[in-house]
Amino acid sequence: MKFLYRLLIFGGVMLVSIPSTQAQIFKKLKDKIAGEAEKAVDRQLNKNSKNKGIAEEDCSTNSNRIQIEENGMFIPGDSLVYATNFDRMANGSMPDQWKTTGSGSVVKISRFSGKWLNMSERTSYKLKRTIDYPDRFTVEFDLIIAADKVNDLSSLFFGFTKDNSLSRWISNSSIWHAQLQYMNSKDFVVSSKVRDLYRNGSFDLGVYANQKMHVSIAVDGDRVKIYLDDTKIADSDLFRGQRFKHFFISSPLRSDNGASALFGNFKINTYSEDF
Fold first, then answer.
1. Where are the alpha helices (DSSP H) in 18-116?
2. Angle at 264 (CA atoms; ends 262, 267), nearest 5 degrees
3. 166 near 250, Cβ under 8 Å?
4. Mind listing the UniProt keywords for this protein, alphabetically (predicted)?
5. Which residues have CB under 8 Å from 169's CB, separation 6+?
């Protein structure tokens, strides 16, 4: 570009200092040079405009990127079917609404309000009464591990069985259950005997030493969704048509260094209308 401008200046000087005939020749040369210069400028402007358009398009593409929204959050039922209130129980007593293969004690604990069931080792718990579960319902409860570290405990189980009998730690009549493997600090298993299904996964259990975990279960016919706090760990057909449902929870087989598993705030809800 600088070279072309220099030629234009040179051409102008020559036109002043040369005869008319030669001036006409140099005028034509000047016009040609000017035309080439104009084309060069246009090409550069077009290039800059094109590059700007690409940059704006890239920016627009990034700002309009598809956003993914997770729509799998737990939605609790809004109509109460049953709830357990340990607050009315005397300290040290076994809750009268529950039956067990061993024992358990209602206790108060520091840092968390209310009363809790301190579960004995290798012990299962079921409600004494039979619940008439609707087709769609939710179950919620809280767990607290009182321990220096969660792997002082072995696995804790919860799920549903075909009948309401209690004869052993883990019922042979289990329909499905979830297993929180505290001894590994990060593993869980969800299995269904009626479906011959066994699935394992990872969840950070280690952070729940002396912390409260909220467990939520949403049932819609045979389909079950299980949440640990806000994390969904299962979403599958676990019942396979088994209509006789009885909730159970089983404490760890082993507890070391004075570790304890506590259970509370249990409730069953249904939905007053579709959502």
1. 20-63
2. 150
3. no
4. Signal
5. 101, 122, 123, 124, 250, 253
CA-CA-CA-CA torsion sign (106, 108, 113, 117)? negative
> In the structure encoding, which two tokens stand for residue 184, read together?
């590994």
Question: Are 11 and 33 within 8 A, CB to CB?
Answer: yes
Query: Which phi and psi (to 5°) does residue 84 adopt?
Result: -105, 130
CA angle 78–82–86, rounded 5-degree value: 120
Q: Do 151 and 184 touch, CB atoms closer than 8 A?
A: yes
In the structure encoding, which two tokens stand for residue 260, read together?
Answer: 């304890």
Quick: pLDDT tens for 143-186.
Answer: 999 999 999 999 999 999 998 888 777 767 889 999 999 999 99
253: its two tokens: 């087989």
**The pair of three-digit structure tokens given for residue 124, joined into one six-digit string:** 């299962």
Phi, psi (deg, nearest 5) at residue 37: -65, -40
CA–CA separation, 39 and 51 (whole Å): 18
Q: Are residues 223 and 234 in contact, defined by beta-carbon separation less than 8 angstroms?
A: no
